[in-house]
Design goal:
7 strands, 34% strand, two-stranded antiparallel ribbon
Length: 116
């Protein structure tokens, strides 16, 4: 999700469970209740954050929320972070280019398919 930032990755305001629920609703074409989004503490900086989502009383999932600056795309921002982490070419170290999946597997108390 895109957010305006101040200096050093700090945000104007914070990313709330309501904002995350709205974005998930758009992405899934289903209504996601903000009360089902569990944000441990307000997200006030750029980066990647794990958030618990209760889709049903017996179905929970953990997702990764990526907060990136307004005026760029999530892919472009991730690429710029990877380029910053690459070793200098003259050091002779191998380059790594790995991006973790945005969604992690859902956990449920029962091993039943997701009916949410």
């Amino acid at each position: 999700m895109s957010k305006c930032e101040r200096a050093r990755g700090q945000l104007y305001g914070s990313v709330t469970n309501a904002i995350i629920a709205d974005k998930l609703s758009v992405m899934s074409d289903r209504e996601i209740d903000r009360r089902g989004i569990e944000v441990e503490e307000p997200i006030r900086q750029l980066g990647s954050f794990n958030v618990n989502v209760r889709l049903h009383p017996e179905v929970q999932a953990q997702i990764e929320v990526l907060v990136y600056p307004t005026g760029t795309t999530a892919d472009a921002w991730l690429q710029s972070l990877q380029e910053d982490d690459k070793p200098a070419e003259d050091e002779g170290e191998p380059e790594e280019a790995a991006v973790e999946a945005a969604d992690e597997s859902g956990d449920s108390e029962e091993d039943s398919p997701n009916d949410a």
